[in-house]
Each structure stands twice: as structure tokens, then as C-alpha cells.
Write a structure and sequence with these properties.
The chain is an all-alpha fold. The protein has helices spanning about 1-10, 15-30, 35-45, 55-75, 90-105, 110-130, 130-140, 140-165, 185-200, 205-235, 235-240, 240-245, 270, 280-305, 315-330, 340-345, 355-365, 370-375, 385-395, 405-420, 425-440, 450-470, and strands at about 85, 165-170, 175, 335-340. Helices cover about 70% and strands about 5% of the residues. α2 (about 15-30) crosses α17 (about 355-365).
């Protein structure tokens, strides 16, 4: 305990070891889905195709890369932020980078794609060594930073509503309300959301974690009851649900992890350095940099870490992200980045690196408790209420935006709506980062803008130009 106090300064941060551990478990549960989604995406099984990547090896690579990167964040940067292979980057890896490598005629395109990720991670380190990434962070105005936090909150809530089945796809309006209110998915989600909100309103410590555990128990009971109702009452059309059929109760708690050998150190660096792959290296680099900046800003604002418009130990936090990407590529997975779900742990009381260290330990344990984690992760409505609740709390940052200055308001607003509507933190940030210096310049206030913001805007315009010609 003395070591923990010296390393993480628990008393100084107004927290306890118990609270930090519970927060770390909460963060893990809200992002545990990546353990199962990532292998399905990279192997191609999610899309009914084969990429050549071994699903078992990718599972191990996912857990190990997340554990290593999150442990670095906890021990070195001392922030309660977890990392894992990023959603969005993994789809780009499979459909765009691997596809480009295949079109170029390279053997084993997935190995070339891993090489591209590895090289982008090294370039990320170069930005770290030159101090460029913290210049990006420090150049952002307070309104932009709070707009990022609010935008990420909307994004998290939107993901939660989609995961629960409450919001579904609509051909006419893109998304719409799911009106099958008798669905077990919606009923369990509604119960979980009301319970989580109620516990938060009562200021109960660990409210989000208790909400997750309660919905897990209810889902298990429902899964046992529904098949019997279907057979006895003949009301399958009313009670059945697509998500509930994915929820598989397990009688087995522990299993040995599969071998990582099929993907370990399999990067094809020679072909990844060919000119045809350069644009993809830059795109992955940009996606990683701005995903990281966005998450650090969002979680930092929520937790109160940002002081005088600066995040202490920003360099250390970004190093964890860079190290995760490099290690992840070596192990056999796509870009590792900071996770917005870390906000759930922060809201549960996490304030130090002990939270991240706990999450890292959970990822290691998941290698041996895969059946149990799979049970929770296979049913998104279990964690969806937590995401919606965290999103609601992060949106309160809109109160810190300068609503009386339109040159501050408009870029922050573009970021807020851009992140959820683009379904991408990096793309949403880019909209605001480009608009901010241009709007200040056109309104005759260009001198208020740090030079770094003009450089960032120019780089982002170049990034979109490259992206439009390669995608």
C-alpha cells in the first residue's frame, strides 16, 4: 500500500485503492467487447471472408497489446485511461490497407498491413520526440477542448443506444427508434439505464459497475426463461431478439489461451515501405494522433486533470499510445489507441494510474477467463446503459464553451456534432481544427490563433486530400 501511495498519490488525488480498482474493472467491462470484436474483424469472420489472420492469435494479441499499453499509461503517465486496438482503425486495416496491399500484388497482404501499422507507430514516436503532439494539445482553445469532451460524450451515448438496439438503422433517415418495446433487449436496457441513473443520482460509489452487474444477472435470468416462454406460449415473435440469441450462458469459467505464433512478428516491412503504401501510413498516423488527442482532452476535462488549459504529463500519456501501436503490430493487431470508454472508470471514481493498472490486469486475466468475458461481451445491452450514462455526464462540458464568441462557438459546435455524425473522433476533430484558424482569420482576429493551429489546419487539409485519392 505504501508503494501505491508513493506511486499514484491516492490521498492527494482524493481517492482510495478500492475505488481505483472498482473503476478499473468498470472501464474494462465497458470495453471488453474489443476482445471478441477485434479478432472477428481482423480474421474476416465478421464479414464472412478470410483475411489470412488466425482468429486465436489475434485474440491473444489484442489482450496483450491492451494490457501492455494500458500498464504503461498507468505506471508512466499515471492516468486512469485504458488503451486497446481501436474501432475504426481495425476496419480501415482490413478493408483499405489490406485491400491496397492485395491490389498491389503483395503476398500475404495482412502482413503488409501490420508493417504499415508498425511504421506509423514509429512515426508517432518521432512526433513525440520532437514535442509536436503536446504542441497540438496546448494549441487548442478551452472552448475547443470542452467541445471535444461534449462531442465524445454524445458519441459514447450514441454507441450505447446503438449497442442496446434502442436506435436502429433506417433506409430513409439513417437511424430511427426501435419500436419493438417488448424486445428483451430494450426492456433490459431500459431497466439498466434507469437503475444506473438512479444510483448515480444517489451518488453511490461504483454506480456504473453495479448497474452492469445487475443487468448481467437479469440478462442471465431472461436467457433461461425466454426459450421456455417461446415453447409454451408460442410468442416467439414477441419475445425473441437478435441480440439475446447471441447471449450464451457459460458453464465453463477458465480456458487456456490459444497460441500467438501465427501473427507474432509477422510484419512485412519491406513491402510496407513501398511507395504505394505511403499514403496509408500517413492516414493511420493521423487517425491515431487525433483519436489520442481527442480522448485525452475528453477524459481529462471530465476528470478535472486539465489545468490552465494544459494536461500535465501529456507527453507520457501519448508515449503509452505510441508504444501500444508498435507493440500491437509486433504481436499481430491493428492500431492501439486510447479508449473513450475510460470515461466510465473516471465517473466511477478513478483518478490515478492504479485504475489503468487494474484494467491492464483484467486484460491479462481475460486470456484465461475468456468464456466468462465472452458471456458479458456477447450481449451489448449489458454495458450500453453505462455508455449512455457516461455520455450524459460528459456533455455537461458544453457549459464551459464561450457561447458569446461565435469564433469560439462555431468550431466547438462542429467538433461536437462532427464526432458522433462522422462516427469518428479524428474526423470530428478535423472539422473544428480546420474551421478554428480560418474563422478567426476571416473575422480579423488571426493574431489570437497560435501558429501551430494554422499548421495543423494545413496538415489536415492535406490529409483529407490524400485520403480522398486513396480511399
Amino acid at each position: 500500500m505504501n508503494w501505491m501511495e508513493r506511486r499514484f498519490r491516492l490521498q492527494e488525488n482524493g481517492t482510495t485503492a478500492r475505488r481505483e480498482v472498482l473503476a478499473g474493472i468498470t472501464t474494462f467491462l465497458t470495453m471488453a467487447y474489443i476482445i471478441f470484436v477485434q479478432p472477428a474483424v481482423l480474421s474476416g469472420s465478421l464479414f464472412g471472408m478470410k483475411t489470412g489472420m488466425d482468429i486465436g492469435a489475434v485474440t491473444v494479441a489484442t489482450c496483450l497489446s491492451a494490457a501492455i499499453a494500458t500498464a504503461i499509461m498507468g505506471l508512466y503517465a499515471r492516468y486512469p485511461i485504458a488503451l486497446a486496438p481501436g474501432m475504426g482503425e481495425n476496419f480501415f486495416f482490413v478493408f483499405t490497407v489490406t485491400g491496397a496491399a492485395a491490389a498491389a500484388g503483395f503476398p500475404a497482404p495482412w502482413r503488409v498491413a501490420l508493417g504499415v501499422v508498425f511504421i506509423s507507430g514509429l512515426l508517432f514516436y518521432l512526433l513525440y520526440a520532437l514535442g509536436i503532439r503536446e504542441k497540438i494539445f496546448d494549441a487548442l482553445s478551452p472552448s475547443l477542448k470542452n467541445g471535444i469532451a461534449a462531442g465524445i460524450g454524445l458519441f459514447i451515448a450514441f454507441i450505447g443506444l446503438q449497442n442496446s438496439g434502442f436506435i436502429i438503422h433506417s433506409p430513409g433517415t439513417l437511424v430511427t427508434l426501435n419500436t419493438r418495446f417488448s424486445s428483451p433487449d430494450l426492456i433490459l436496457f431500459a431497466i439498466g439505464l434507469l437503475l444506473t441513473f438512479s444510483l448515480l443520482a444517489r451518488r453511490l460509489r461504483g454506480a456504473i459497475l453495479w448497474g452492469i452487474l445487475a443487468v448481467t444477472a437479469l440478462a442471465a435470468l431472461a436467457r433461461l426463461a425466454i426459450p421456455r416462454l417461446d415453447s409454451l406460449a408460442g410468442i416467439q415473435a414477441v419475445t425473441s431478439s437478435k441480440l439475446m440469441t447471441q447471449f450464451a450462458l457459460t458453464g465453463k469459467m477458465v480456458a487456456l489461451p490459444p497460441s500467438i505464433a501465427p501473427t507474432f512478428l509477422q510484419m512485412d516491412l519491406v513491402n510496407a515501405l513501398q511507395a504505394v503504401m505511403w499514403p496509408y501510413i500517413l492516414i493511420i498516423l493521423f487517425m491515431d494522433v487525433f483519436d489520442t488527442v481527442g480522448t485525452l482532452v475528453g477524459v481529462g476535462e471530465q476528470a478535472g486533470f486539465i489545468k490552465d488549459n494544459k494536461l500535465p504529463r501529456a507527453r507520457e500519456a501519448m508515449l503509452a499510445d505510441q508504444a501500444g501501436t508498435v507493440v500491437g503490430a509486433m504481436l499481430g493487431t491493428s492500431t492501439v489507441t486510447s479508449y473513450i470508454e475510460s470515461a466510465a472508470g473516471v465517473e466511477a471514481g478513478g483518478r490515478t494510474g492504479l485504475t489503468a493498472l487494474t484494467t491492464a490486469a483484467c486484460f491479462l486475466a481475460a486470456l484465461f477467463f475468456a468464456p466468462l468475458i465472452a458471456m458479458v461481451g456477447s450481449y451489448p445491452p449489458i454495458t450500453a446503459p453505462a455508455l449512455v450514462a457516461v455520455g450524459a455526464m460528459m456533455v455537461r462540458n458544453v457549459g464551459k464553451i464561450d457561447w458569446h464568441d461565435f469564433s469560439e462557438l462555431a468550431p466547438a459546435f462542429l467538433v461536437m456534432i462532427g464526432i458522433p455524425l462522422c462516427y469518428s473522433i479524428s474526423d470530428g476533430l478535423a472539422l473544428g481544427f480546420i474551421a478554428y484558424p480560418l474563422l478567426k482569420l476571416l473575422s480579423g482576429r488571426g493574431r489570437e490563433v497560435p501558429v501551430a493551429m494554422f499548421v495543423i489546419a494545413a496538415a489536415l487539409i492535406g490529409y483529407f486530400t490524400i485520403r480522398s485519392t486513396t480511399l
